[in-house]
Amino acid sequence: MKSQPRAGQRQKRGVALLSVIGILLVLLVFAGGLIAQLDMETHSVRIEAMSNRALNAADAGVHAMVEQIQTNLALNLPPPGGAVTFTYPEPSGTPASTSYSATIDQTWPAGGLNYYLITSTGTFNNGIEHIQRQVRAIAKSVPISSFASFSNYEVNQFGKPVWYLPSQHFDGPVYSGGPMRIAYATPPPSGTPSPIFGASVVTLNTPVWNPGAPGSANDWASVVNGGSGNFSIDKTALSLPQPSNNIYVASEAWEGDGLNSFPTFPSVPAGVYMDGGASKGADAVNAIGSSLTTGIFVNGGNSSVTINSSSSGGTEKLVINGSGGNFAKGAYNVIINYGSTPCSGSTTVTQGSFSHTFTGTPCGAPGPGVTNTGNGAIYVENGNVVIGNPNATFQGDYTIVTPDFSGWSNNNITMLGSVQYDPATASTDKLALWANDVIINTAASNITIDASIIAGYPGEKWNNGDFRNARCTATGCGTIDQGTLTLNGGLIENARGAVGEVLAGSQFGFSRIINFDSRFATSPPPFNPSTGALSIIAWEDLGS
Q1: CA distances (Å), 175 to each of 17, 95, 115, 117, 330, in order?
Q2: Which among 355, 414, 510, 542 could disulfide-bond with 485, CB atoms 3.0 to 4.6 Å apart, if both were Cys?
Q3: Pick from 326, 224, 221: nearest CA to 273
Q4: Bridge partners, residue 485, by sequence
């Protein structure tokens, strides 16, 4: 006989079935929630990835704007007035697109350098999601004095190629428009500085090498400190100082207010002018201002202006002389007595029996946003400059400028010998010499120049804008060995002017050694211009 299930057993099985169904329902709910959560997480990750693409695009826009500013400066053009945009190509058939749009929101000068506020928006759009990220950055122009050597052309003013030799040493960063001609020796000659380049080298073109392109680590060690990693080819050109940089120094020398409001040169007779804005154009000996807030403005009257400089014991004496106009009354003697703090003290200007004393000194560049302060701008308009004493000494911070750009008179600065800082204050003194050509004209040997030298403007041809020895011609550099020309500072020039040469093992003229003044990389001489290169000094994510 077959047994029948009891009612209680049937009831138990029913409860078990319901329990299993309940558990399955709970699991299904959890699984559904998990799937939903996974879908949300997947969507969140996808959105984050798209947001990151937009952020990366926004950052790329900042760098693209920086590069465009640099390119414009190298071509002597203003910064972009509109947006710089770009859309990244996507794989064929993909509806998504990534793009950026960057603009310059504000530009302002400070101490001769320019700052740019850049805002960039990055966008990702796949037809469904449209995501934007925005960043803001401040880019600062890099002082041109941050290079030990800067040149656009590797020929001298006569068109002859210039070589970098094993006997030379460039103790600081080097930039060259190229092609560089580099003769190295492995190992370097005994008793010579090694390597040729003591820091980084950036050039636009592949160099001409002798005896051949460096291959081994030892070869590169003879060329550049740190080896091949410190030698790079970069197609982004840097620029020489812009015309606006010249005008900025002129404005500071005349007005000294940091506003750069200098549309035209003042119509004044030849002579020396200080506190020009306050005196309404009176020459220095008749100036009505009592507190000196400007630099020194000189109208050369289309002739040469001689500046003799000497210093000792906290006093700088400049004797400035020319011809015509107010110079007919005699030379101007500018006596600067430095105080215990920057730009304090007094300045007395005498000419013949006339004298005027100012409170304050024309030293030191104003900081960002600072106005009505003394400055170290010495600007000579309508005339070449001759630093007349063969052993000139300077004390304080000065930039001596005579205008150099197309459409204006291209004036030169000539030195008749050594130009050095006062030994007692050399650690704090700074000097820049800036002109069309900067020339050494002396029969002396083994001279020293303490300065950042600048010669040339953007777009200038290869046969102008250089630092050179007046005794060098297209066929030679005299008949004597003038020993070493030591430059403590930096050399920025359009073409590599001839100062000396080596023929058949014999030296004629000077052998050049550049000892880079590392202070100039972060704290250049007053109103020193920039290279056109920019560095990003601040960056902020503004979100979506």
Answers
A1: 85, 44, 22, 26, 44
A2: 510
A3: 326
A4: 512
CB 433 within 8 A of CB 454: yes
Cβ atoms of 355 and 275 within 8 Å: the answer is: no
Encoding tokens for residue 96? Answer: 């998504």
* DSSP per position, 306-343: EEEEEEETTEEEEEEE-SSGGGGG--EEEEEEE-SSTT
Domain ranges of the chain: 147-233
Gyration radius of the chain over CA positions: 33
Q: Which two tokens stand for residue 343?
A: 């730009």
Q: What is the Cα–Cα distance from 63 to 166, expressed in whole angstroms?
A: 37
- Give CA–CA dist 58/52, Å, rounded: 10
Strands 467-469 and 438-440 turn out to be parallel
Q: How far apart are CA 441 and CA 447, in angstroms?
A: 11
Q: Over its length of 544 residues, how does the chain's per-residue pLDDT go in tens digits?
A: 455 555 566 666 666 777 777 777 777 777 776 776 666 666 666 778 888 989 999 999 999 999 898 888 777 678 899 999 999 887 766 778 899 999 999 998 765 678 899 999 999 988 788 899 999 999 988 888 889 999 999 998 899 899 998 888 888 999 999 899 999 998 877 777 779 999 999 999 999 999 999 999 999 999 999 999 999 998 888 888 877 777 778 888 887 765 666 656 677 889 998 886 555 445 665 555 678 888 899 998 888 999 999 998 889 999 999 999 999 999 999 999 988 776 788 999 999 888 888 888 886 544 444 443 457 899 998 889 999 999 999 998 899 999 876 555 678 999 999 999 999 989 889 999 999 999 999 999 999 999 999 998 888 888 889 999 999 988 888 878 898 899 999 999 999 999 987 777 677 888 888 899 998 887 888 888 877 778 899 999 998 7
Alpha carbon of residue 319 to chain centroid: 31
Sign of the C-alpha dihedral, residues 165, 168, 173, 178?
Answer: negative
Q: What are phi and psi of 35, to 5 degrees?
A: -65, -40
Cα–chain center distance at 417: 28
- What is residue 464's DSSP assignment? S
Write the CB contacts of 100 (distance below 8 Å, at least 6 apart in sequence). 57, 58, 60, 61, 64, 85, 86, 120, 121, 122, 123
For the chain, how many residues are written?
544
Q: Is the peptide bond before 179 cis (omega within 30 degrees of 0)?
A: yes
391 and 374 Cβ atoms separated by less than 8 Å:
no
